[in-house]
Specification:
The protein has about 190 residues and is an alpha/beta fold. The chain has a single domain, classed as Rossmann fold, CATH 3.40.50.
Length: about 190
């Protein structure tokens, strides 16, 4: 079974990776993308996964480790495998503000850009992913909201362990939650 952590950018995928790692699951990460002000505890990403559209076989290199796959690349996963996907959900306005803040800090934010176009593209993409999960019987998906992780970390950890069907240290997972890192939250 392939364990995938996914979601839109800035939706909490790094947080779930941290929870899983604390719980005892190995996460495939090359350390290339270092921690920064936008993600002070690290991203836990594997750069090679970005080659998925050109080389779907790269998923086999993960060697029984969970791997983060941005939602835009999910449809490139080889369909012959079975997947358990933890799909992070965060309110779209929060995702947009968080993304804009990150781009500002990096000096690549375009204030003349139309966020409504990006928001609509994200909405369309999320619908496409939802349909994809429904029509692919070898895919199992657990939706996990950033809000639920913050409000009920232990219960969320228990739910994740049950979904993945692996023994995880749910207490250690719950201790990873740091509410101060949840910025740009909607009121």
């Amino acid at each position: 079974m392939n364990t995938i952590i996914s979601g839109l950018p800035r939706s909490g995928t790094s947080l779930i990776c941290k929870l899983l790692a604390a719980g005892g699951m190995s996460i495939l990460s090359d350390g290339e993308r270092r921690a920064d002000v936008d993600n002070p505890r690290g991203y836990l990403e594997w750069e090679r996964i970005k080659q998925l559209p050109k080389d779907p076989t790269c998923i086999a290199e993960r060697k029984a480790k969970a791997v983060k796959v941005i939602s835009q690349l999910l449809l490139s996963l080889p369909p012959e495998h079975q997947y358990r996907v933890i799909f992070m959900e965060r309110p779209l306005p929060e995702v947009m503000v968080s993304q804009d803040e990150m781009l500002r800090r990096r000096g690549t934010f375009d204030p003349s850009g139309d966020n409504s176009v990006v928001a609509r593209a994200f909405q369309d993409h999320l619908y496409q992913i939802e349909v994809w999960f429904k029509v692919n019987p070898t895919w199992r998906c657990a939706e996990c909201s950033t809000t639920s992780v913050l409000r009920a970390p232990k219960e969320t950890a228990e739910s994740i362990a049950k979904f993945l069907q692996v023994p995880l240290d749910v207490e250690a997972m719950a201790r990873q939650v740091d509410e101060t890192l949840y910025r740009q939250r909607r009121k």
